[in-house]
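Let us walk through a complete example step by step. Step one is to write down the protein sequence. Step two is to encode the small molecule, molybdenum atom, as a SMILES string so that its atoms and bonds are unambiguous. Step three, shown after the inputs, is the structure prediction itself.
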Amino acid sequence: MPFKTELKHSDVTPKAAFLNRRQIIAGAAAGVMAGPASARALGDIAKTSHGAGLATTSLEDISSYCNFYEFGVGKDDPPRNAQDMVTVPWSVEIAGLVDRPGTYGLEDILRRVDLEERIYRFRCVEAWAMVIPWVGFELNQLLDMAGVQPSAKYVAFETAVLPDVMEGISRGYLDWPYREALRMDEAMHPLTLMSVGIYGEELRNQNGAPIRLVVPWKYGFKSIKSVVKVELTSKRPPNSWNMQNPREYGFYSNVNPLVDHPRWSQASERRIGDGVFARRHPTLMFNGYGDEVASLYAGMDLTREF
Ligand SMILES: Nc1nc2c(c(=O)[nH]1)N[C@H]1C(S)=C(S)[C@@H](COP(=O)(O)O)O[C@H]1N2
Ligand SMILES: [Mo]
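Step three: the predicted structure of the complex.
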């Protein structure tokens, strides 16, 4: 667990403030409180050294240039269309090969995990990139809470299906719910986060409120938003983009400059916020996290298992 010591911080106030805020909201008329107008600060979370030195993308860009197909296919559709999604209260069902299956309330989860801020590179399969200061906790903490059984080999995730507020649900470009999955070693890896905030604020709806996955060495579509279900399985689960177009989107989706998308190069990327005419940057193998994760794929042919 290479980041554990590096990331330890003793300030527990922010978490308490965050929990308290969610409870107050839950007790009030939730719908009235939802939306970006309320500041929804997570509190004064201590910065860690993870990602120090990377220039972060502005919150303005992170929250206005989004992919969240439940709310439309345009980058500016989610910020416009996601605001009616009610995220308090929220719970996550944990099912399948675990000792303690059940429905876990988000407040309960947050009370039991270590919240941290980590700055990660984020790379979309469409060859744009950001640097995002996430607030979250390691997925392995949630899995330990549920008690993973030895027969579990994969972790599957599902996004909420809310047809009343998600205009994309009635349209057929993806088979809902949005689904993603990780191999067990990927899911247990200390880099893999469940995020609940960005820049010290609760996640905005368009970024996957109130809880989403973040897997920084993989293309962005693996980082599934607004998660309501986590299922431990023995067989490899389907994932939405692979179901939609298996030729273009694989299961692993590791960032790899040497394996092009069938319709465009992955050798370079555009940084959101740089302006359209700015110089492109070379794509880094595993999005720059190779030292931490390359060993997970030793012996695999990454041009076939893309
Ligand atoms: N449920 C759901 N999760 C999703 C998506 C989506 O359409 N639906 N899009 C994915 C893609 S393609 C990307 S690049 C990231 C974008 O995250 P961001 O908008 O917070 O930057 O979310 C991922 N998670
Ligand atoms: Mo993406």
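Step four is interpretation. Residues 67, 124-126, 220-221 surround molybdenum atom (ligand 2) (CB under 6 Å).
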